[in-house]
Amino acid sequence: MRTRCWLRTSNSTSSPQLTDADLMAAGLPVGARKRLLEAIERFCDDQDTEMPSISQPTVPVTEPPVEAERRQLTVLFSDVVGSTHLAETLDAEDLRSLLLSFQKVCAEVVQRREGQIGLFIGDGVTAYFGYPRAHEDSAQRAVQAGLDIMAGLTELGTDGLEARCGVHTGPVVIGELGVGEKRLCDRIVGEAPNIAARLQAFAPPGSLVMSEATLRLVEGFFEVDPLGPQMLKGVSAPIAIYRVLRASAAPNRFEARSGQSLTPLVGRETELGFLTRRWENAMEGEGQAVLLQGEAGIGKSRLLQTLRMQLREVPHTEIIFYCSPQHQTSALWPAIQHLHRALGFAGEKDDVAGRERLRHFLGDLDLDSADLVEPLATLLGFPSDPGWNTGPADPEHVRRAVFAALSRLTFAVQRRNPVLVVVEDAHWIDPSTTELVGQMLTDMASQRLFVLLTARPEFRAPWSNSSPMVTLPLARLSRRETEAMIRGVAPYDLPAAMLAQLVAKTDGVPLFIEELTKSVAESRSNLGFGAVIEIPATLQAALHARLDRLAPIRQIIQVAALLGRVFDADLLIAVGQRDAAAVKRALHDLIEAELIYPRKNPHCRRPTI
Ligand SMILES: Nc1ncnc2c1ncn2[C@@H]1O[C@H](COP(=O)(O)OP(=O)(O)OP(=O)(O)O)[C@@H](O)[C@H]1O
Ligand SMILES: [Mg+2]
């Protein structure tokens, strides 16, 4: 009965509570709206024949439905510098081949960063990041792609070919436009492409400019120079813009924000105590391995950072492998980055000085023999000594030598000091690093080695069961801890109703607590009863990325979302227009992905979710 009341107003006989306009506002395309309204109609008829009928959607049915969806999109616009002048001075054939070279570089870079080319118009290229597949780091990918394009053009060395880029993030609607044969799919409607195109005009040749909206999503990942608020043609208010100088060394979101003050730590005493005891065992020469596992934003990196702070005064060496979503197929990328940091490289690529630095580093550990220097130099991309590995290049031989060198290096370090090996975000680990970590786990029994991995729930440790690894699951914060955290984040006291809403909406996930509280506190305007909390831009990409991975059951998710934060599984089956088994499988996938949770409802025989 509760359901029926929700679907229709109790005192109305003519209008349903849930209208086509409501569904449209919820971002559902026409087809889905129509199906849902029809299904609700049937469901209500089955339940209560006296119910008034639900109004039909008003969309004409002569054309197939126009599907569209709302998204947060980061748009990269890149434009050839001085194209008018080039057109005047170059022969048309030469101009064409110049533009083709530019477009090729753009296409290759955008594909590598998993964006999508939208349009090649004349001497400009528009690329989208966040559609058709969202990544939680879409904005970062877009900015990095812009920098890569410029680097690619420099490498190409074509005389007179230079570009500038603009990047902006904003809400858009993506879908079909046009009528009949002229109907086109994947059209973007929204300001973002326009603003990105306008922004590039502010960039000096060979550089990239981004808006504040994008900066908020990539803060800490790039070094920037503020260019102040600027008026853009066709945009009513000034927009603060930033020139991107270069990528920073930050390996992940947590480290990128390390410049900002941290929310005071809440809870986690038990977990910290557990890790500390394991560390103490490792110090005694009983190698330990722990997998710290939990959903995105639950606080894995924060707990790790707290442990590292606690060990600051204890003599030990850290080896940190940061796995990255953009380098899941680059062999040993996390180890290479670690060596760069350990050797103090800051992006320079002086082969001779680099080799020398490596030799010194290994010399300090009495390891400067050629069988160590050469494989590691190869790993770091320095040309190898002609005396080493003579004969036809044998990749397998090189690979084995690199692995042996890394193992010996870890062993030598741990002879001097206990070693903390961290593998951050192991769900993005590449196969070679997996092998390297597996080797460490096999060899660690009597070493002063503590291997600590962090990973999201989807990660399945690929090492054999005999590997002595313990999993430490990280749970959501309790209500009391959530309230304490909200108070720690909000710069002033929030009204009780808003505090209660934040507790309910953030579900004890620290990242959500931080981001939602910040965005609510910033808005200041409507904090009272009935205020609507919107999903901040900083969480949208992560949410879409999770939903995109579940694309086949997207429609079921949309319908479930419409049913409310708590919904009844039977109702979803009834209105979803899919067979019960498919909906149950979808619910299972959603529970696995930790997007929904089953609940026991004492007032209801059926499961609510
Ligand atoms: N117990 C806590 N008390 C206060 N703040 C916390 C706590 N746990 C996490 N945070 C904060 O919440 C944010 C998200 O945490 P963190 O980055 O550690 O999550 P994560 O599990 O590593 O997520 P991801 O899987 O995306 O890397 C950080 O800003 C962190 O400082
Ligand atoms: Mg983390």
Topology at a glance:
Elements (H helix, E strand, L loop, with lengths): L1 H6 L12 H6 L4 H18 L20 E13 L2 H7 L2 H21 L3 E6 L2 E6 L8 H19 L6 E15 L6 E6 L2 H9 L7 E4 H7 L3 E9 L8 E9 L5 H4 L12 H15 L4 E6 L6 H11 L6 E6 L10 H11 L7 H14 L5 H10 L15 H22 L2 E6 L6 H13 L5 E7 L13 E5 L5 H11 L6 H11 L3 H14 L13 H13 L4 H10 L5 H7 L4 H13 L17
Helix pairs in contact: 5-6, 13-14, 14-15, 17-18, 17-19, 18-19, 22-23
Magnesium ion binds next to helix 11.
Notes on the protein architecture:
By secondary structure, this protein is α/β, with parallel strands linked by helices. It is built from 23 helices and 13 strands. Strands 1, 2, 3, 4, 5, 6, 7 and 8 form an eight-stranded mixed sheet that branches. A five-stranded parallel sheet has the order 10-11-12-9-13, with helices on both faces. Strand 7 and strand 8 form a beta hairpin. The N terminus is likely disordered. It binds adenosine-5'-triphosphate (ATP) and magnesium ion. The site of magnesium ion has 4 residues, from helix 11.
In short:
The protein has 609 residues and is α/β, with parallel strands linked by helices. It has helices at 2-7, 20-25, 30-47, 83-89, 92-112, 138-156, 192-200, 212-218, 253-256, 269-283, 300-310, 333-343, 351-364, 370-379, 395-416, 431-443, 479-489, 496-506, 510-523, 537-549, 554-563, 569-575, 580-592; strands at 68-80, 116-121, 124-129, 163-177, 184-189, 208-211, 222-230, 239-247, 288-293, 317-322, 419-424, 449-455, 469-473.
**Ligands, deduplicated:** adenosine-5'-triphosphate, magnesium ion
What's the story with the biggest beta sheet? 8 strands, mixed
The CATH topology of the largest domain turns out to be Rossmann fold
CATH class of the largest domain: Alpha Beta
Determine the CATH superfamily of the largest domain.
P-loop containing nucleotide triphosphate hydrolases
Query: What's the rounded overall pLDDT mean?
Result: 83
What number of domains?
A: 4
What is the helix tally?
A: 23
Low-confidence stretches: 1-16, 48-62
Strand composition percent? 15-25%
Radius of gyration: 28 Å
CATH architectural group of the largest domain: 3-Layer(aba) Sandwich
Report the structural category.
alpha/beta
Helix content percent band: 40-55%
Number of strands: 13
**Spatial gap, N to C terminus:** 17 Å
Shape, principal axes of CA atoms: globular
